[in-house]
Amino acid sequence: MKLKHIVLTVLAPTLLASAGVASAQFQKPEDAIKYRQSAFTVMANSFGKINAVVKGEASFNKDDVAKNAAVVAMISTLPWQAFGPGTEGGNALPAVWSENAKFKAASEKLQLAAVNLNTAAQSGDLEAIKKAFGATGATCKGCHDDFKKK
Ligand code: HEC
After folding, report:
1. CATH code of 73's domain
2. Atom 40 in ligand 1: which residue has the minimum CA distance?
3. Cβ partners under 8 Å of residue 72, min gap 6
4. Which of 2, 5, 84, 127 ranks highest by number of CB atoms within 10 Å?
5. pLDDT tens for residues 100-146?
6. How many angstroms does the Cα of residue 137 sit away from the middle of ligand 1?
């Protein structure tokens, strides 16, 4: 089963709504860069809120964590369409394009980890959330190390 199908099965209603967005075309490279940076910003915002709970800096509210994890899972599917040919730039390293298969694999790792995080979050099991959060964070770092300017 392809990743897209797994993600769609798990997140069907919200994700189907965004599937139209997922075929977005960009007039200019700057538009693509802005789009992907915006998606990362929105995803990181929700991810950061879960981080605070995981670290014990914010109290655990099951519904809030569930909402934020759903946002992370959904938004994690979006940035990749904005890394097409001719959209080099921003803080993306040239390796995104020269080692595109590796970049794609790294993006799929995140999307799968985000689905697991969302599953854990919907269950409300804080220990499972912590574990899945750590695994997801490792996929962010792994990709940034190789593909994003410091
Ligand atoms: C497959 C690679 C990859 C993964 C996985 C990934 N990122 Fe990124 N991220 C990038 C790249 C490349 C950029 C630079 C984009 C640009 O400037 O054009 C970036 C940029 C960002 C930015 C800066 C956005 C801006 O406004 O410039 C944030 C914040 C961010 N990522 C957060 C995250 C978080 C949080 C995760 C994990 C939940 C994550 N990223 C996972 C590749 C990745």
Report:
1. 1.20.120.10
2. 140
3. 43, 46, 47, 50, 114, 117, 118, 136
4. 84
5. 999 999 999 999 999 999 999 999 999 999 999 999 999 999 999 99
6. 11
